[in-house]
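Collaborator request, handled under Task 6.
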Amino acid sequence: MDWTSAQLRSLVELTRRGTITAVAQALGYTPGGVSQQIAALEKATGRQLLRRVGRRVELTDAGAALALHAERILTTEAEAVEALERTRNEMSGTLRVGVFATAAAEILPPALRQVRETHPGLTVRSRDMDVDEVYDAVAGGSVDLALGLDYPDVPIPRDPSLRVRELSRERFSLAVPAGAMPGRPEVSLADTSDLGWILPSAGSYYGRAVLNACRRAGFEPRVLHEVTDTAATLALVEAGVGVSVVTDLMLRLRPSCLDVLDLHETMERHIVVVFRSFVEHRPAVAALVDVLRAAAGSAPARREGLPPG
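C-alpha cells returned to the collaborator:
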C-alpha cells in the first residue's frame, strides 16, 4: 500500500495522545496537517481509521490494527536507516533533536559547531520544547533524540523503549536578592522557611524535586510566583520578590545582580540525552551523543561573568 512514514507516525501518535491537537503539538504540525495525514492514510488503505466521539476521535478496529503494525514498520524503517549508515565511509544524514531552554542556549551551539567541523555531512535540526515533554517526543518519534533533565528526587520513568544517557551533573545553589543574607556563603534550605519562593508548577519534575527537598528539610516552601522561564525567575529574584534554586547553566541565561549561596544540602539535576533503544548503535546518533556529552561537560564554570551581588 502507498503510505508514508509521516502518515503512520500520525496514527501511532494518536493512539498515545488521544486528540488531533495533541498529536499536532507533538509532531510540530498544525491540527489540519494531522487530519490531512490521517485522511491520506485512509485513502491509501481504503478503510475508515477514525471515528468522531463528541469532540474527540477514537480509532476504529481497522485503525487500531494498523497502528499496532505501524509502530513495527517505523521501527524497522529506523533499523534500515542504521544499516545504511554503516555502509557509508563518512557520517551523513539528518537528525532531529529536541532541546529545552538552558540546553538550547548553552549546550546546543558548541555542539553544532563541533558537528560542522567533525561531521560536515551530518545535518542536525533542533526543536525547542518543554523539558518535561522531551521523553514523549522521543518515544513518539517526533524527534530522534532530545536533551532532558533527570532529578534524583523525581527520576524519569524508565520506559524500556528509551535509553537515557547522563551527560553531566549540576548542583543547585540558592539565588537570593542582593544583600538579603549578608555574610552567609552557605545556607540550609531550612533557613528559607520564612521567605517567599519562585518556582515552576508543582506538577513539573523540577517543581516536585524542589518541594521534596524542602519537605525533607522540614518545611513547605511558600511559593509566591509560579514561573517556568529561568530568565524570568532570575529577574524576579533580582527584583527582591523571592528566592529560588539555580545551577551554573541557569545563571548564564541572564546576567543578574543577585547573591548566589551554596546550599548545605546536596540538590542535583542531571543533564541527559534520550533516544529510542533501537537507534542506540546508529552511527550518527552515537556520534551526536558523544558531541553533546563533550559540550555539556565543557560548559563554563560556575557564576562566571556574573556581576557581584
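The cover message to the collaborator said: "The radius of gyration is 22 Å. The first strand starts at residue 50 and ends at 53. Please let us know whether this matches your experimental observations."
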